């Protein structure tokens, strides 16, 4: 590709959404250049799903996403479904399996998804400019969007921003997309780390940190979020799927200015009251008795934290009820999160109220598109974030 190149579409960010969009626009006959600053291609796909890429989920609906504009994602998700992506994966002969809760993973390696997208881009004759540092972006009436990079200058009537969110800066995440939004007067909902481990206050941490590595099933609740999955004690607080899921809702509540505690039901929906009633005559300490339901070391530490150190038989009914309430509504106020360094995704991003839900184009800036995680649409854990990347990339490509 020459130093000054005019094309139909410039896509910045060759991750999940950018590759999908570039491939499909290329296959529709558009001349596409795909620009990325990273040395390696699609690192986030590579490290995803523990190296096996949880590439979609069988059960996708708008309810699996958080956004300041909850209906925005519907149109794109309806027009590119998990079945569409599964058909693509099958066409490329990639073997996969359902792990749990509709989550689909490669049998072998996430590298297969990257190779598949590279083949799709090759089919669309997409030109790669990678690694290429973007120096600036401008819009000129005659030339359209002009992107100046250290690998040459490109201009095109359409520019697609697919630079993702802020999580894991050490593999190339930047705030580029938000800066471009600001440059073109498009509002951004403040980005926050999501699907992220939570940190706890000193007193709770002193009791729990020695148990780092211990896992147990909970129902985690906060705002509209409710997840029955595993929680995991860490050296800094809590993690595990239930905690990662609920962290997004906790962050959303904080962002809305009404922080709420994270509530953990340690009986995961079972009736703690009835269970304690059935043991009302027990001479065992609560910490020992609860070891029937929870990992022993955790049960003891938790009972100690609650000050529940008398045998059940010695407790009044009111004390037993208070213990049951604490078991099913253990309210924790996180001291914070482990930040973007440990977050799987970014909550917030380019404000969807400024975008067309059909095409992902900025309504006030013809030819400028935002797709994938840079947009204020954040999926649950379980393949939903990739499905959003595929679907939003596809939506934009149909309009290019
Ligand atoms: P993505 O981050 O994929 O791509 C952005 C691209 O833009 C990158 O290639 C980057 O180098 C480039 N870029 C950034 N700044 C730039 C700049 N200034 N100039 C040029 N290029 C720039 N989701 C899921 O559904 N299933 C899963 O199994 C997992 N697993 C997982 C594990 C881990 C550890 C993380 C951190 C995340 C996940 N995710 C996930 C989330 C998923 O990876 C994420 O939502 C998608 O990759 C988002 O796709 P995008 O294309 O929007 O961004």
UniProtKB/TrEMBL annotation:
It comes from the Bacteria. Residues 8-398 form the RsdA/BaiN/AoA(So)-like Rossmann fold-like domain. Its cofactor is FAD. It holds the Pfam family HI0933_like. The keyword Flavoprotein applies. Residues 192-345 form the RsdA/BaiN/AoA(So)-like insert domain. Keywords: FAD, Flavoprotein. PANTHER family: OS12G0638800 PROTEIN. This is NAD(P)/FAD-dependent oxidoreductase. The lineage of its organism: Bacteria, Pseudomonadati, Pseudomonadota, Betaproteobacteria, Rhodocyclales.
């Amino acid at each position: 590709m020459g130093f000054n190149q005019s094309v139909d579409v410039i896509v910045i960010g060759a991750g999940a959404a950018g590759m999908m969009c570039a491939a499909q626009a290329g296959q529709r006959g558009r001349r596409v250049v795909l620009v990325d600053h990273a040395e390696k291609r699609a690192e986030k796909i590579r490290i995803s799903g523990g190296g096996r890429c949880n590439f979609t989920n069988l059960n996708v609906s708008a309810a699996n996403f958080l956004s300041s504009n909850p209906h925005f994602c519907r149109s794109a998700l309806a027009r590119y479904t998990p079945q569409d992506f599964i058909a693509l994966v099958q066409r490329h002969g990639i073997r996969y399996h359902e792990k749990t809760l509709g989550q689909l993973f490669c049998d072998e390696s996430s590298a297969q998804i990257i190779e598949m997208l590279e083949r799709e881009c090759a089919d669309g004759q997409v030109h790669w400019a990678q690694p290429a540092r973007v120096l600036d972006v401008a819009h000129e009436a005659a030339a359209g969007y002009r992107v100046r990079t250290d690998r040459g200058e490109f201009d095109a009537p359409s520019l697609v921003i697919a630079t993702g969110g802020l999580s894991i800066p050490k593999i190339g995440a930047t705030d580029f997309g938000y800066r471009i939004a600001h440059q073109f007067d498009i509002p951004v909902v403040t980005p926050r780390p999501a699907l992220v481990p939570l940190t706890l206050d000193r007193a709770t941490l002193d009791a729990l940190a020695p148990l780092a590595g211990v896992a147990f099933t909970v129902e985690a609740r906060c705002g509209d979020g409710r997840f029955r999955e595993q929680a995991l004690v860490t050296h800094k607080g809590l993690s595990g799927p239930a905690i990662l899921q609920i962290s997004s809702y906790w962050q959303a509540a904080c962002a809305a200015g009404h922080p709420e505690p994270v509530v953990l039901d340690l009986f995961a929906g079972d009736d703690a009251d009835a269970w304690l009633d059935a043991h009302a005559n027990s001479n065992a300490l609560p910490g020992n008795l609860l070891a029937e339901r929870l990992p022993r070391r955790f049960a003891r530490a938790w009972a100690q934290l609650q000050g529940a150190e008398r045998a059940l038989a010695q407790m009044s009914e009111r004390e037993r009820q208070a213990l049951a309430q604490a078991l099913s509504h253990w309210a924790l106020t996180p001291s914070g999160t482990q930040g973007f360094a440990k977050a799987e995704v970014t909550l917030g991003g380019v404000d969807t109220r400024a975008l067309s839900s059909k095409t992902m184009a900025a309504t006030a800036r013809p030819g400028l598109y935002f797709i994938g995680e840079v947009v204020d649409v954040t999926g649950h854990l379980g393949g939903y974030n990739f499905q959003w990347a595929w679907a939003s990339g596809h939506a934009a490509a149909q309009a290019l």
